[in-house]
Design goal:
Length: 780
């Protein structure tokens, strides 16, 4: 069951893992798409920035051109202002020049007007382009922010999914480890089951051989020496002692004890009910302390005062019945003689109820005739009178069935054995009817008490008495319900236990035969007790169990340690192989590194100092940070330390600056160290990934094998358990059959011995008579 739950849990986790994996792929695709969109939008922003820069440059050139034209216009206006007074002096000479100047002015005006219009148009275009650029930029920025937020959300989802995947992987690994442990335990149990089945088969075989040999011997003895089979005759079979069933006797004693407790509670409630009813008659409807009650109630009170002499014997009879059921007796209806006594006590109590019933009804009628009795109270009294009649009838019915059950112990022909079950079911029905009647009495009496509580003449003594009667009625109702449910729960057992008696027979013939059987049982028990010999000293059971647990735990721990040692040896051999492989790889890498260093050294020696400077200039993209730090070092005379991408370098002033070769050495050494470190990290990551992949494959294979072995072991366990149960059933049946046969043989042998002794006595008497006759003949 636990393995099925674990397998279901593992399947659920696998399904969730596949779903989450599919969702992760979809989310990864969405993140990639969003990243591509954000990259495209960034490219668009760059293009818009470039176009904006171009427009700004055009605008700057146009403003510069406009300024030039404005200066030119000012110069022309100044020239025009200077030419006007001169024209007045020499109009004549200047007519031709004025015409020329007017023509030039008109040309300049047209040119100026065109430039102004063009400038205005360019301003409008620039303003529109600027506004459009700002709008596009705002849209792109908002879209970029939304995309960034979405990307962050997707990244958070991806992180959560990865965490969840890791958790599920850890859970699956833990479940896998548990399943491996469970599979190992199941394998051990299967081994134990196989050993047990083999032992059982061998024991069964030996037992079968032993019993077959004993059966042959017994059959020979029976055929030779048993004159007749007494189980064929019911009169003789009733005298045979049945097989002792201690469990049945203990169960019957337990049931009798429960019934005794219920009857004691019922007796107590009946005593309280009758006593408080007597007390109520003394105070209602007329209080005996104030006035004389009616003769009817006096007689009724006198009878109720005698209730203990009728109710107490019920408890005593049930107690005697409980004491008669012991572990050594055989409890059936033919042997429960004390049930007749209980039935007689119940009959006397029924007579008491019949005697007080008319007085009780008349007392209720007298209450109804009182002046303060209302219609509701009168109705309740009538209902109570009907309930009392029903209660007496139910007790009579119950006494009839109990008397029938008591007949087999006194009169063998009074009740047939086939009617036992119907009588028991009728007893259960009568008890349920008694419970229903008591519920009605409790309901009606509570209603009556509430009505009487509202009457003006109700005294505190009457209220207290009514409460006591109600409590006793409730106790009676609860006791009747408990007895009814108790009998209903055990009626099947009662019916099934009726067959308990002499074997291969219909039961006891008469109470006399049952009594004789009990005497024979006592004699047989005394004989067996006399034959019992003290056993030799042996190891106590608790100590043997403790030694067995220690032995099993030591063997299990030894097997587990052996498995662990074997696994550790395999791991050590694998690690040694990997160590040799990586040592060879390291040697090859070392040789390659030495060759590379030699090549770099040769190259550096072949190059001149000028070429070194050229190389340094070519690597300016790498050493930009170094040049900036050198410029800062020139401004500051003290040495400065810089932590850049190429390592930690120390520089001083121009007089103490290192040369180019030392700097190149530092850079080369730093990059070589960095390359070595990155290659080692890469190799470590590759080795870890390969190891993890191999371990995952091995674990998956082991898990599949473990599941297959688990299924096979479960099937083997089922088959083994079925075989064991079948063998045990066969063993028990064979044991019982052989024990029955042996008991029959022993009985037949006893009867045969008795017949042989009788025949010997007859032979002796015949010999004595023959001797006497011979003596008489001789004397004659």
């Amino acid at each position: 069951m636990a393995s099925a739950e674990l397998q279901g849990k593992y399947q659920k986790l696998a399904q969730e893992y596949s779903k989450l994996r599919a969702q992760n792929q979809v989310l990864k695709k969405g993140v990639v798409d969003e990243q591509a969109n954000s990259a495209a939008l960034k490219e668009q922003v760059k293009m818009k920035d470039q176009s904006l820069r171009k427009l700004q440059q055009e605008m700057d050139s146009l403003t510069f051109r406009n300024l030039q034209l404005a200066k030119r216009v000012e110069l022309l206006q100044d020239e025009l202002a200077l030419s006007e007074p001169r024209g007045k002096k020499n109009k004549k000479s200047g007519e031709s020049s004025s015409q020329l100047s007017q023509e030039q002015k008109s040309v300049f005006d047209e040119d100026l007007q065109k430039k102004i219009e063009e400038n205005e148009r360019l301003h409008i275009q620039f303003f529109e382009a600027d506004e459009q650029h700002k709008h596009v930029e705002a849209e792109l920025r908002s879209r970029l922010s939304t995309l960034e937020t979405e990307a962050a959300q997707h990244q958070a989802v991806v992180d959560g999914l990865t965490r969840k995947y890791m958790e599920t992987i850890e859970k699956l690994q833990s479940d896998k480890a548990k399943l491996e442990v469970k599979s190992q335990t199941l394998e051990k149990e299967a081994k134990e089951c196989r050993l047990r089945t083999e032992e059982c088969q061998s024991q069964l075989k030996n037992l079968h051989e032993d019993l077959s040999s004993r059966l042959e011997e017994s059959l020979l003895i029976i055929n030779e020496k048993v004159p007749f089979n007494d189980t064929k005759y019911s009169q003789y079979n009733a005298l045979n002692v049945p097989v002792h069933n201690r469990r049945h006797q203990l169960k019957m004693r337990d049931i009798a004890g429960q019934a005794l407790a219920f009857v004691q509670d019922l007796v107590k409630a009946l005593l309280n009910f009758h006593t408080y009813t007597e007390q109520r008659i003394q105070i209602f409807p007329i209080d005996s302390a104030i006035d004389t009650i009616s003769p009817l109630n006096q007689k009724f009170s006198q009878y109720l005062h005698e209730n203990a002499s009728y109710v107490r014997p019920l408890e005593e009879g049930m107690l005697h019945l409980f004491e008669s059921i012991t572990e050594d007796t055989v409890t059936v209806l033919e042997t429960t003689v004390k049930l007749k006594t209980f039935s007689e006590h119940l009959t006397s109590y029924i007579c008491f109820l019949r005697k007080i019933l008319p007085y009780q009804l008349k007392s209720l009628e007298e209450e109804c005739e009182a002046s303060l009795c209302t219609s509701a109270l009168r109705a309740r009294n009538l209902e109570l009178s009907q309930d009392m009649k029903k209660m007496t009838a139910v007790f009579e019915k119950l006494q009839t069935y109990i008397a029938l059950l008591a007949l087999p112990s006194t009169e063998p022909d009074g009740l047939l054995r086939t009617n036992y079950s119907s009588v028991l079911t009728n007893v259960g029905a009568a008890l349920h009817g008694f419970h229903d009647v008591m519920k009605d009495i409790s309901k009606h009496y509570s209603q009556k008490a509430t009505i009487e509580l509202e009457l003006p003449t109700t005294t505190q003594k009457l209220i207290t008495t009514n409460d006591c009667i109600l409590s006793s009625v409730v106790a009676l109702t609860n006791g009747a319900g408990k007895i009814a449910s108790f009998f209903s729960n055990n009626v099947d057992y009662f019916i099934a236990s009726l067959s308990y008696g002499p074997k291969t027979g219909s039961g006891f013939i008469s109470p006399l035969s049952a009594e004789c059987m009990l005497q024979y049982k006592k004699k047989a028990a005394a004989y067996m007790k006399a034959l019992r010999k003290p056993l030799l000293e042996s190891v106590p059971y608790e100590e043997a169990l403790a030694n067995r647990r220690v032995l099993l735990s030591s063997t299990e721990s030894r097997e587990g340690l052996a498995q662990q040692v074997q696994q550790s040896l395999e791991k050590i051999s694998k690690l040694e192989q990997e160590k040799e492989h990586w040592m060879l790889e390291a040697q090859l890498a070392k040789i390659k590194l030495e060759k590379e260093n030699q090549r770099i050294a040769d190259k550096l020696k072949s190059t001149s100092s000028g070429q070194v400077v050229g190389v340094a200039q070519e690597r300016a993209a790498v050493v930009t940070a170094v040049g900036q730090e050198e410029a800062a070092a020139k401004a500051v005379p003290e040495p400065v330390h810089s932590t850049s991408e190429i390592g930690i370098l120390t520089r001083t002033s121009d007089s103490e600056a290192p040369d180019v070769e030392s700097r190149e050495d530092l850079i080369r050494n730093h990059y070589m160290a960095r390359i070595v470190e990155l290659t080692s990290q890469l190799q470590l990551a590759d080795s870890k990934s390969v190891h993890f992949y191999a371990e995952c494959r091995a674990l998956s294979k082991r898990l599949a094998l473990a599941e297959k072995s688990k299924e096979a072991l479960t099937e083997e366990m089922k088959v083994a358990s079925q075989n064991i149960s079948r063998l045990q059933d066969e063993l028990t049946t064979t044991k019982r059959s052989y024990e029955d046969q042996l008991s029959m043989m022993s009985d037949h042998l006893c009867s045969m011995n008795e017949t042989l002794s009788k025949q010997r006595e007859e032979i002796d008497t015949l010999k004595m008579s023959s001797k006497g006759n011979s003596k008489k003949n001789k004397s004659r």
